[in-house]
Amino acid sequence: MGWPSIFYISGAVGMLWSVAWFFYGSNSPAEYRGIAPEEREFIESSFGPQDHSRRIVTPWVAILTSAPMIALTIAHSCHNWGFWTLLTEMPTYMKEVLEKDIKKNALLSSLPYLVMWILSFVFSPLSDFLINRQYLSRVASRKLFNTIGLWVPMVALLGLAFVPKGGSDLAIVLLTLAVGINSATYLGFQVNHIDLAPNHAGTMMGITNCAANIMSIIAPLIVGQVISDAVSDGGGRRERDPLTLSLISLDIHLQTDPVQWRRVFYIAAGVYFFGNLTFIIFGKADIQPWNEPESPIPRTVSNATNGMFGADPPHRT
């Protein structure tokens, strides 16, 4: 089947997952018949008392004007900018600059994401350990891991910008670091929706993910403006005028020039820096008053105003 099999297999797996979700998914642990009583009690106790029979109206204005929500949206968008820049452009960089044939070195192109998967199993229990042992407050943990997940890759990208054309091994190490450490954001902004408003976390994820996916469209377009794509004649033997041939030569030169790629890494690093800085300054991890419109949760001292890594409010455990 060749390369189209990648899309067929991915689509088939998605369809199988959808069928499984349709038959086994439930609105809450109480409605799922296959859950053990101990597991159900553990999950429900972590969320506190909930009334699933009561209809909760989405407070759109409060959500869209909330400073922590805006900071969360910015962090999510900036993360996607860098993540999709690497995801879409890394094969081209490895082939044109590092001169690695990704068809013969498939492991190299998948290695960063393998490391990302492995590190997610390291960061997750570490975050729980720090919070449960009260070494860090919840908001401190969120901001710490978000900083690891965005600013460490930022440093790796800045280092990658200065790797010479012959330093392929160092470049691969930095690429792997930039993508792999990014998994720390799963314990940062990625779970912050539930921290802020458990009742509206799904809606909030939809909002931030929508904004972030716009960045995944814009980022490759910006890269395309910085790095000119090589022009192919599709295997044809048409004669080209000298101007066209010179433009093709220039495009190929730009695509293989590390200096041109340096600009791409600068932009991604700057976006990472801005996104995490915004999250550190304005991000919170306490339940917001608009989580329960009919019976608002009493306002507490903001985590953000207690300092960059302030303490949790007393009602969170």
UniProtKB/TrEMBL annotation:
Residues 293-317 are annotated as: Disordered. It is found in: Membrane. It is a multi-pass membrane protein. GO terms for cellular component: membrane. The chain crosses the membrane at residues 6-24, 60-84, 113-132, 144-164, 170-189, 201-223, 264-282. GO terms for molecular function: symporter activity. GO terms for biological process: monoatomic anion transport. Coiled coil: none annotated. InterPro entries: MFS (IPR011701), MFS_Na/Anion_cotransporter (IPR050382), MFS_trans_sf (IPR036259). Its main location: membrane. The keyword Transmembrane helix applies. Keywords: Membrane, Symport, Transmembrane, Transmembrane helix, Transport. This is Major facilitator superfamily (MFS) profile domain-containing protein.
